[in-house]
Amino acid sequence: MKKEKLRVYRKVSLKKSYDLVIIGGGIHGLAAAYFLAKDYGFTDIAIIEKNYVGYGGSGRNTTIVRANQRTKENIPLYNEGLKLWPKLINDLNFNMMFMQCGNLDLAHCEETLNSLRVTVLTDQFLGIENHIIDAKQCKEIVPQLDISSQAKWPILGGMYHPPGGTVRHDAVVWGLSKAASHLGVHIHQGTKVTGIKTEQGRISGVETDQGDIKTKKVLNATGGYSPLISAFVGLRVPIHVLPLQAIVSEPLKPFLKTVVSSIDYDFFSNQTLRGEIVCGSDMDHWPSYSTSTSACYLRHQAQIMTEVMPCLKNIRFMRQWAGLTDMTPDMAPILDGNNPVKGYFMDMGWGYFGFKSGPIAGRYMAEFIATDECPEMVLPFRLSRYRNHCFLGETARPVYYGPWN
Fold it and tell me: Which residue from 260, 268, 277 is spatially nearest to 103, judged by alpha carbons?
């Protein structure tokens, strides 16, 4: 008799009813299910994923985590999330390769440097370790930086956030899915949601291509696809889906010991444990569901990498990809369950901050779902803030995404 293959999570049949259906098998949905089962004994949960767990933004990101945000609403949430990683790794008994290697943001003009000063002062006021440093100090942290005046955009200084770092994204997915499954959560891959049923303004069920499910609660944690799922309940959300492209180099001898980024250059990079240089840029400024990369992006990345760190001039790239960011007008998420459709919960609008926030958002959404009371930490992120014109000021500069249709 052949031994059954070891699985990270159990393979189960789709039931006709669940207490909760989570749409989206990424980090946010898995974390919510895990904390619901662990902290509240809420285990009659189905996670519905049309592809496979970790398929979307959870597998298409650059693994960076940090807490040096810009606003008093965001900073405590991300700081708590950054502190949660070691505890989560211990609780799951799963190595997620969490490295607090620090984050260095470079400034190439006085306007950017002044913006970073505001961020640092706000962070320090709220107890976050973050510092303004000059160009020489930047080079002490990353000796390969070109801080000469001959550079196209000379480095004037930077912002250094020592607690920041990286986490292995697929390990996070595996750890959470394994733990949630062992606690009784059902994970259904290859299952597509085709509709959400409501009766008298309340959730009554979910339609899938594998059969209908009766439920009174639904959590939408689908990242870039969250506006499409919200449309099933007739809810319009102010989210634009923008691709974010990334590339990975051949393995190199370890030299980059921190995350390096630049607002002016639209550039961020880190070196993996395998020696690869992972590079990302700003989002495309036009809505799209494309996950392919462009020649324009590759050229842009090659130019800025070699200008900031000339030692990278002759490296080769092995692969490239793009992920989908669900951007709101104020670059802050939507965490809500008090909306016109009772029983419909939302964890969306994270933009390119979705990976950083996965476990902490899941923990608070678990509390929200289990108690039907909005946790104080997530009160600022309600959908109603847009209707009431209470935008959060996370964005450092205006970006036009087109009309909200």
Answer: 260
CB-based contact 142:260 (threshold 8 Å):
yes
Q: Within a 13 Å sphere around the CA of 402, how many CA atoms are in the beta-carbon half? A: 11
Is a pLDDT exceeding 50 seen at residue 402?
A: no
- Under the banding of pLDDT at 50, 70 and 90, the label for residue 86 is very high
The residue ranking higher by pLDDT, 221 or 389, is 221
- How would you list the strands of the sheet with 193-199, edge to edge? 193-199, 202-208, 211-214
Q: What is the pLDDT of residues 58-74, one digit of tens each?
A: 988 889 999 999 999 99
Structure tokens at 168: 């292995």
**Alpha-carbon span 165 to 34, nearest angstrom:** 24
Structure tokens at 127: 């107890």
Adjacency order of strands within the sheet including 103-107? 131-134, 157-161, 103-107, 259-262, 267-271, 277-281, 240-249, 317-327
Residues 205-214: pLDDT tens digits?
Answer: 999 999 999 9
In this predicted structure, what is the pLDDT of residue 5? 53
Crossing angle of helices 74-92 and 169-182, rounded to 10°: 70
CA distances from 84 to 64, 75, 92, 171, 399 (A): 15, 14, 12, 15, 31
Closest CA to 11 of 190, 186, 213: 186
Q: Please report the pLDDT score of residue 399 as a whole number.
A: 41
- Residue 264 burial (CB count, 10 A): 17
As a whole number, mean pLDDT of residues 91-103 equals 96
Q: Among 6-10, 57-61, 269-273, whose mean pLDDT is lowest? A: 6-10
Distance between CA atoms of residues 58 and 223, nearest Å: 9
* pLDDT for residue 169: 93
Q: Which two tokens stand for residue 163?
A: 């607690």
Q: Identify whether the C-beta of residue 207 lies closer than 8 Å to the C-beta of residue 8.
A: no
Between strands 218-220 and 20-23, the pairing is parallel
Domains of the chain by range and CATH? 20-61+169-238+330-387 (3.50.50.60), 103-162+240-327 (3.30.9.10)
Spatial separation of the C-alpha atoms in residues 38 and 59, rounded to whole Å = 24
